[in-house]
Structure formats: C-alpha cells, structure tokens
C-alpha cells in the first residue's frame, strides 16, 4: 500500500523494544505469525490475500488480533513502513510494511531466543525458516491458483505486459509470482552504449560509490563485509578484488516482477555458489539494525560475471528473505549475457539482489547517489531513501579505468 506524503499524519515507527508492539507476548506474536501463513492457504481464506501475510500492518484481522491485540495500538499511533521515491515521476511516497514483516522484525529484535507454540519450544530462526518453507509449499500447491486473482487486484498487476496473460495457464500461485514478461516490456536504456550499466530488477534501489558509504548510510549490521556476504576468507582473491569497490542493493517487494537480470554485458564465470542461511526480513528497518547483519545471515546464492568492457569481475548476490521459498538461476557457466538479460528468479516473497563492483568500474547515476546518501541542510536531517526502478533503467557508466 502506498501513501502520498500529505497522508502521513502520524510518526513513522522505528522498531524497538518500546515501539508499537511493546508488551506483546513473544509466544503470541509467533502464534500470530504462524496463523498469518496458514491464512494464505485457499481453504482458509478462499483466495483472499488480504486475510493473510499480504495485509498491511494496520489491517484488522480478527484471527490475528486475538493473538496480538497490540496491533490496534500500533495502527493508531504510527505509520509502519518506509519512504520511497519513484524515479520515473520523481514522486515521493510512503510504502506500508506488510504485517508479516512487522511481526518477523518484532521476533528478531524484541523477542526471546525461544518461542513456544503448541508443538513445543522453537528458536526464533527455526520458526521463521519453518514458516517460510510452509509458505512456499502452500504457493506450490495446485489449490493456490485461487490466490492469483486476489494478488492481481491487490497489487494492480498489469496483465498486458505478461508473456502469458491467461491466468488459467498457471499451475499454481508461484508460477504466476515468477511470471515472465514480454520481450519488450523492460527496454534497456542506453542499450547501444557498451559503457552503460542498467538496473537488475524491478525494485527499490540504493547505490553507494564505496562500500564504506553503504555502511555509513544503509547497511548498519556490525557483521557486514564483502567476505561475509560472499562467504569467503578476507584473503581470498575473489574478495580482495572488491576492496574499495561499489555496491548496488535492489530490494524486491512481494508485488514486484520477481525475475532478476544482468546489470552488465558480461560472461558468466563459473556456477552459482549456494550459501545456506536464515530467512529474516530484508525490510530497510531490519537492514538498518546495528546488531544484526541480515544480508550475511540469510540464505543466498552468488554468481560472478566478467564485465565485457573492463574484463573485471562483478559479484551478483541473490538473497532470500522471510517467506522466500527458493532462488533459481536460468543461466549457465560461460554463457554471454547482455545488459537486461535474465539471470534467474525468486519464488514467493520479498527478496534482495546485491551487485558488487570492483573499484573504478562504475560511476553511478547522480540522482541514485543523491537519494541513497543525501546531504544534510543544517535545518533537518534528510534520511537516505530507496529509489523505485524497473529492470533496464540506467544505473551508471563504466568510468574507463
């Protein structure tokens, strides 16, 4: 759900121990989260997505509020979500956080290590993993086709741009979720310029000319580093090549087209490297949490691309998240890909792609840098803001070094 700035009449909640869910029992929050996942099954909601995980944090769901009545107080006191700027229109808007992400963040940042459900005691990370796998199974089931019409209505998805617009041709919800688009649906800007780079996903994007700037403005996790993200030793040559490099972070919301694409003209170097991990939310408030590095903790898969023009490697990291079922690559080793060419897709859920560039490879577009790391004007603190982009939008240029 999007709100225009003049509709923002309440403060924006910062998730903490004394925020809008203060006093909520952790076990009740865990039970409520599990109930939300169960509600997504067509047999429970008759296909209505707004009765489950897709509901906004201010929604009133009787099946959930019996577990977490504090949600009513949360909705009264706060807006829950993040500011985003639409690159195409320049419009700034507020994007409400889905209710599942808010409950998942409470369990991560405010909850105990153990939560008790009917079947016994579970660690929070085990609970989130279990429910993420459960969600994937629900959306892989043939019955989940009943969820597709509600999904289209809720997110106003245009069927005109789909390669197959007939929803009867999809065997389950997940097939529709990672739907393909028509070949001309995402044109690549500056396609004839070999020095250009493009957006890798329909997403909310932040970019940083240096990784140090990313740590200052966006990724606050104390554990975050390139070696941690790539699951390699700091002395590994694959890590050393990125020292002083640049970072682009593409966050996909559940409503987005969920195939990801190459930001560069390149050759695929080797096979993907899968790294097991957790299923934590990748919402910006979680990324900005100083005591937890979500990116380096979550399940992810890493592909290296050799940039055609510079000959240097670009690391492309697909990161799973809360309720994301799987990461699938659709390219193979030694294949040449053009900018905007498909690399793979996510099954259900919000998720993130991070592109890491070696130093002196990319100069990001000025507007993206300005939104991601704004300067203060001495009268007010200007927060970094994600930029809403689509696959193929200009990302920057090779600086020729």
TrEMBL record:
GO terms for biological process: phosphatidylethanolamine biosynthetic process. Coiled coil: none annotated. Pathway: Lipid metabolism; Phospholipid metabolism; phosphatidylethanolamine biosynthesis. Its cofactor is pyruvate. Its EC number is 4.1.1.65. Keywords: Decarboxylase, Lipid biosynthesis, Lipid metabolism, Lyase, Phospholipid biosynthesis, Phospholipid metabolism, Pyruvate. GO terms for molecular function: phosphatidylserine decarboxylase activity. Pfam families: PS_Dcarbxylase. InterPro entries: PS_Dcarbxylase (IPR003817), PSD-B (IPR033177). It comes from the Eukaryota. Transmembrane segments: none annotated. It is an enzyme of class 4 (lyase). PANTHER family: PHOSPHATIDYLSERINE DECARBOXYLASE (PTHR10067), PHOSPHATIDYLSERINE DECARBOXYLASE PROENZYME 2 (PTHR10067:SF17). This is phosphatidylserine decarboxylase. It comes from Boletus reticuloceps. The lineage of its organism: Eukaryota, Fungi, Dikarya, Basidiomycota, Agaricomycotina.
């Amino acid at each position: 759900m999007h709100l225009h700035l003049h509709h923002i009449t309440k403060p924006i909640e910062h998730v903490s121990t004394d925020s809008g869910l203060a006093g909520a029992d952790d076990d009740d929050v865990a039970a409520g989260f599990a109930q939300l996942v169960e509600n997504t099954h067509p047999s429970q909601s008759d296909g209505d997505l707004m009765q489950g995980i897709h509901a906004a944090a201010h929604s009133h769901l009787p099946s959930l509020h019996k577990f977490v009545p504090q949600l009513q107080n949360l909705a009264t006191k706060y807006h829950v979500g993040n500011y985003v700027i639409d690159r195409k229109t320049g419009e700034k808007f507020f994007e409400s956080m889905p209710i599942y992400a808010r409950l998942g963040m409470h369990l991560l940042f405010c909850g105990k290590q153990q939560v008790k459900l009917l079947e016994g005691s579970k660690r929070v990370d085990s609970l989130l993993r279990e429910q993420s796998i459960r969600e994937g199974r629900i959306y892989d089931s043939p019955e989940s086709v009943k969820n597709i019409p509600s999904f289209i209505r809720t997110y106003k998805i245009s069927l005109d741009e789909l390669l197959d617009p007939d929803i009867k041709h999809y065997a389950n919800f997940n097939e529709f979720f990672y739907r393909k688009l028509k070949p001309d649906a995402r044109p690549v800007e500056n396609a004839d310029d070999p020095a250009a780079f493009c957006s890798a996903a329909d997403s909310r994007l932040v970019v940083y000319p240096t990784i140090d700037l990313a740590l200052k403005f966006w990724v606050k996790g104390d554990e975050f580093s390139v070696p941690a993200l790539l699951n390699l030793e700091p002395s590994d040559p694959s890590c050393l090549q990125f020292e002083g490099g640049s970072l682009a972070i593409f966050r996909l919301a559940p409503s987005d087209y969920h195939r990801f694409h190459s930001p560069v003209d390149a050759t695929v170097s080797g096979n993907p490297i899968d790294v097991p991990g957790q299923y934590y939310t990748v919402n910006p408030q979680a990324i900005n949490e100083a005591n937890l590095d979500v990116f380096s903790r979550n399940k992810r898969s890493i592909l290296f691309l050799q940039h055609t023009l510079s000959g240097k490697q670009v690391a492309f990291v697909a990161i799973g998240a809360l309720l994301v079922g799987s990461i699938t690559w659709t390219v193979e080793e030694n294949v040449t890909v053009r900018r905007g060419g498909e690399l793979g897709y996510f099954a259900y859920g919000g998720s993130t792609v991070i592109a890491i560039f070696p130093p002196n490879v990319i100069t990001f577009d000025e507007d993206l840098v300005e939104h991601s790391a704004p300067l203060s004007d001495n009268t007010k603190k200007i927060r970094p803001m994600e930029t809403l982009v689509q696959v193929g939008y200009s990302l920057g240029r090779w600086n020729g070094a």
